[in-house]
Amino acid sequence: GGQTATAGASQPRAGRLPSLPHGRLDLFFPPPPSSARYTTTITTTPTPPPATAHLRLRTGAGYTYRQCRSLLGRAAMPPGAGRRAAVDVEDLLVRVKNGAGPELGAVAREVAALAAEGRLGEDEEGGVLVPALLARLAGAGDAEVRVLVMAALRRLAGCAGAETKERMASIEALSSIVRSLSRDVDERNEAIALLLDLSDIPQVRQRIGRIKGCIVMLVTLRNAHESGTYDDAEKLLHILSCNPQNVLLMAEAGYFRPLIHYLKEG
Description:
Radius of gyration: 32 Å
Strand content: under 5%
Structural class: mainly alpha
Helix content: 55-70%
Largest sheet: none
Region (Disordered): 1-24
Shape: elongated
């Protein structure tokens, strides 16, 4: 009678999974390669273990901890995960050219976000957007829109090559940016920051100094000691002081430090 009870207890109940010893991952995954170092990519999608089964991932079963995580994660990853949607540059370009007011501000914010993610930049995508943004900056009547457009140009300048920066730094484009130095605090902060980003190209530094009123405005902003603009104005003046003509213009505007430095250096 005791033997019959023992045999009945060893039988698994219907509808229940048999218990598994810890480390028996071989019941769910293919056997690991024979070599000690795992060098190939596992392409077989394993059958995920039941949600109620609590298995301890142990390297003693032949898999490393990282391999176990990779196998389990691959089964849970949805198709197409991790892929970036393609950027519709033509749509962005049309919206930049035709957007009015809030629409232009919205697309400028979108361009800035894409550029910050590295999805616009040195290639032709960033190149075709720059002239359109500059054209809208020159004619934008709303201060908030101008700030957003300059922010988009800054992001493009930050991930673009010299050719795109040269396109941003035409005399006409720089004139539009310099005009923003005399406007409200947010706009002039963005304008100084954009000029700083463009000033790492020697030819651009020469052009900035030749824009009428630029040096005078920068000296005025520096002397005002306004939070947020003082440091950037000081940096930009220092960069522009590599040109003797700019140094003379700074002295005429009442900023003598670069001239004194030149005289001491002989």
